Structure to design on (542 residues):
């Protein structure tokens, strides 16, 4: 059977736009000879719709869109992801896939396994399927699965389900498995998916055709990388990463050597670029503004923005004080020249001194401390937000995951912004991104990469005055935040006890800051934001 993959980029809630995307893809693929067309999970509504499903007209309008699809399809069947009602007890809706074909009634399949971990909360909305059975499509018994239905215990955080939809479909006589997916990206996940599907196809001796979404929706990025795997576990096709694609794959196609891999730095770069581009497009922005300090974080953020949006839509600003070195200002201006973006220099020295003078009576007898340091990023945020308001730019905050984790950032200062594209990127990976960006020519000045990182808020300041070395900090944070180990677990692995306890305490104490941070793009296995829910007022100390 020739199966058409519609690896498309739906927008959450854009029912007319998603309908047009699905129909355009269907018509193009059927014109090329597809005998069955697959779309991603919830292609009609976009994924994840979250509490939009509770709006009184959202599900009815999604069902109207599905009926429009049914009227437009021809003799070639289409599998489209949508939301259906649950008429019985339990959650109000089903995460569903509809088999649509001219002159035949709609046949629906419901998702069986509903993830409720990390960024997922599907049990809040959907009722799982009561049973599964293959559908008859073009004379073959096709097992239709939806995203999580095909994930196995080995590739999940732990055993989460007692039911295995894939095994049940095979027991019921399925000859082919298809999967409609919206699988969020994190580093290394595309290869894990390929390994998983190859293993499942070989284990069950069945071809598996997996159609994944692509695009950014809020904090999530979907990488595409749709796959077709033969019954022996050999790869038949892999669609491109991080862009829409239409492709027909024959179940009898010759196998390929194996899954295509990207370097970690390139994966990160492409994922962050796509997430930024779609966040602007889907939210109605056209341009961004950001502060350029001459440091590596703002440089990497600016380079990604230029790649994603074009230089004409990226605006930098340098905002020095007496503590800013001339080298940092020069690096900011050199970066702007290399990227082809404007970078006016607006000194905040005068307003900084005015604020200190204004508050001098209240601060009389008190030594200068982080209060005066924090005035500077807050003044910078004032300028950037003024430019954002006046010119309609989205303000990008430039902080990384390492700083956000331990609170090495200023509320209403450098944390201000509409999107934080590096907030799930540890500092050590920021350096890897910088080297990737400079792989062909020097865009980020060498000195921005090589000089000791510094906030430059007081004389001769470096990050390591306060923080452990970033390579050590990032290893501890990966264990504490992403693997959820306690301080004593990490100490038992050989790390210095005082350093581990300092890091753990800083992470815990700064939850209040992260609750007020701009949304960030998820690219690791556990990001701050929707995938990590910690109380602010709590007293648990390991």
């Amino acid at each position: 059977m020739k199966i058409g993959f519609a690896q498309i980029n739906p927008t959450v809630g854009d029912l007319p736009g998603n309908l047009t995307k699905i129909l355009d893809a269907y018509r193009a693929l059927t014109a090329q000879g597809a005998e069955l067309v697959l779309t991603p999970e919830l292609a009609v509504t976009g994924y994840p719709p979250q509490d939009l499903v509770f709006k009184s007209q959202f599900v009815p309008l999604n069902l109207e869109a599905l009926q429009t699809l049914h009227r437009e399809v021809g003799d070639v069947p289409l599998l489209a992801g949508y939301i259906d009602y649950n008429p019985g007890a339990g959650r109000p809706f089903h995460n569903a896939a509809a088999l649509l074909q001219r002159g035949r009634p709609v046949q629906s399949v419901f998702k069986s396994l509903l993830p409720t971990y990390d960024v997922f909360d599907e049990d809040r909305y959907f009722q799982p399927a009561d049973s599964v059975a293959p559908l008859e499509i073009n004379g073959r018994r096709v097992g239709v699965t939806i995203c999580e239905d095909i994930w196995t215990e080995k590739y999940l955080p732990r055993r989460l389900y007692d039911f295995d939809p894939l095994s049940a479909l095979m027991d019921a006589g399925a000859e082919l498995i298809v999967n409609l997916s919206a699988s969020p990206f994190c580093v290394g996940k595309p290869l894990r998916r390929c390994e998983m599907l190859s293993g499942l196809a070989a284990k069950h001796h069945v071809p598996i055709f997996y159609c994944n979404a692509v695009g950014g929706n809020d904090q999530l990025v979907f990488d595409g990388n749709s796959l077709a795997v033969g019954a022996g576990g050999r790869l038949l096709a892999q669609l491109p990463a991080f862009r829409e694609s239409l492709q027909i794959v024959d179940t009898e196609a010759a196998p390929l050597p194996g899954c295509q891999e990207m370097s970690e730095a390139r994966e990160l770069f492409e994922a962050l670029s796509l997430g930024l581009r779609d966040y602007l497009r889907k939210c109605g922005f056209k341009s961004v503004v950001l502060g350029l300090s001459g440091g590596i974080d703002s440089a990497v953020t600016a380079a990604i923005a230029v790649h994603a949006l074009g230089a004409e839509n990226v605006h930098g600003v340098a905002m020095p004080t007496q503590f800013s070195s001339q080298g940092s200002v020069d690096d900011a201006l050199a970066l702007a020249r290399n990227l082809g973006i404007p970078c006016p220099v607006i000194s905040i020295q005068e307003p900084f001194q005015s604020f200190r003078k204004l508050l001098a009576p209240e601060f009389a007898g008190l030594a200068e401390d982080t209060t005066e340091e924090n005035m500077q990023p807050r003044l910078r945020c004032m300028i950037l937000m003024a430019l954002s308001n006046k010119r309609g730019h989205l303000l990008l905050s430039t902080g990384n995951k390492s700083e956000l984790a331990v609170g090495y950032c200023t509320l209403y200062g450098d944390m201000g912004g509409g999107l934080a594209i590096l907030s799930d990127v540890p500092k050590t990976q920021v350096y890897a991104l910088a080297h990737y960006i400079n792989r062909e020519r020097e865009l980020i000045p060498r000195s921005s990469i090589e000089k000791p990182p510094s906030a430059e808020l007081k004389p001769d300041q470096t990050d390591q005055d306060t923080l452990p070395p970033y390579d050590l900090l990032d290893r501890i944070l990966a264990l504490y935040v992403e693997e959820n180990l306690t301080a004593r677990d990490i100490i038992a692995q050989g790390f210095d006890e005082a350093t581990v306890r300092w890091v753990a305490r800083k992470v815990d104490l700064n939850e209040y800051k992260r609750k007020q941070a701009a949304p960030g793009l998820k690219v690791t296995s556990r990001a701050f934001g929707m995938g990590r829910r910690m109380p602010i007022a709590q007293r648990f100390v390991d």
Summary: The chain has a mean pLDDT of 95. The two ends are 57 Å apart (CA to CA).
